[in-house]
TrEMBL record:
It comes from the Bacteria. This is Helix-turn-helix domain-containing protein. InterPro entries: Cro/C1-type_HTH, DUF5753, Lambda_DNA-bd_dom_sf. Pfam families: DUF5753, HTH_31. Residues 18-72 form the HTH cro/C1-type domain. One of its GO terms (molecular function) is DNA binding. Signal peptide: none annotated.
Amino acid sequence: MEERISPTVRLRRLTRGIRRWRAEAGLRQEDVAAALDWSKPKLSRFENAEKSAGPAEVLALAAVYGVPDAERDQYVALALQARQKGWWQRYGQDVLASNFEEYIGLESEAAEVHEFSGELIPGLLQTERYAAELMRAWIPQSDDVVMKERTDLRAQRQARLHDTNPLAVRTVIHESALRQLIGGPEVMREQLKHLVVSAKLPNVTVQVLPYSAGAIPALGLPFIVLSFPDREDPDVAFAEHLTGSVYMEDPTEVEVYTLNFSALRSKALSQRESITFLNRLAREL
């Protein structure tokens, strides 16, 4: 099985290790900075993933903390991986809107994606025409080159659904997203049919949350929870807003999102019922 390596995930793992080393050593940031003749802000940037510590910095920290050689070498390797370029980084900042680049880095190594979508079809399940209509509606509007590159980026993400070791996607989509006529009846009919086809993949679950469900958890608050193949990498919750996004890694916070997703799934139609619902909507258009 080919291992997927994301520098984003490796940097987060490296950062957690660096913080743990200092906590276990019982040292303050100023103590460590003084021992290494660093500034305190430099160490803080490494501990907060604002900058990736290189192999030399990891070796220096390991020496101060008395880290065993085997563990030290493991984190030196992480430092090298964290400085690699991710496949998505060939796209410019105009393509990777706001801090979505970090999300792509996380998703590229994730094993599972759990997504609740209230008004839009989840990106991993969007058709090219549906996505293009959304991009044309954005303000400020992007030029044709950026839109083409964003389309390609989305296709690269969606390709993971068909890998030998595919990404598992579990979605709950509110009925309002399915009835919103993005691009008109023809585009939406194609999109609904694509959801049906996607739902038949063994690694994809699509559940519709109908209007009849009434009051539901997280109403108006779409979110994603990412899980990773290595237990050392904790789940991450992700939520977007108009000009950026928020990531949650604190286990207590992530557990809230996990519980809400489970509750949403229990209120949604089953996979079989959802496919029937989607086919009916497509026929009505």
